[in-house]
Hints:
This protein is 38% helix and 14% strand. It is α+β, with helices and mostly antiparallel strands. The longest helix has 19 residues, at 114-132.
Amino acid sequence: MELRDAMQRRRMVRRYADRPLPAGLVDELAAAALRAPSAGFTQAVSLLICESEIDRDSFWSAAAPEGAGRWLEGMRTAPALLQVWTSEQAYLDRYAEPDKGWTDRDPGRWSAPYWWVDAGMASMLILLAAVDSSLGASFFGIPTDRIPAVRAAFHVPDEQLSVGVISAGYPDPAERPSGSSRHRPRKTGVQLIHRGRWS
């Protein structure tokens, strides 16, 4: 598939078909994330894959107990979940190395927290790789009060910061677009792209 086509087709899928994924396909999605840019080549965006029924059930039990809403019922049908984690400390340590020299490890030196930026880029590559593989996918966040439970359930080290989760699978053919994009029009380039000066 051409990249332009993948970008046009990409959307957040919130319900999945009862259809298993071929062996190795989730690994291909994860491998796409490894091609994302990485500030200082820090390479500190990590994935935790939940593909077995046991792992998926453990995730949902920790992240969102039953009765959390209709949207979540659809998300629970995903055959694969890719948790995205990042480490601020790894970036601060990397930029304290001799070739960077920010030995004070001050996060205030950063114009943007690139541990989050890099994780966003890695996540987008997974979403595009899913489209390229004829899959559906959705990115969502773990509620902040549930992150400790997810961390405990999967033995995630304390220094890891939860970025979000990508669900993946074959879209349910009966699913219809929903969410904010259904009620809010897409803004145009005229509204969001500026040339030379802001206005």
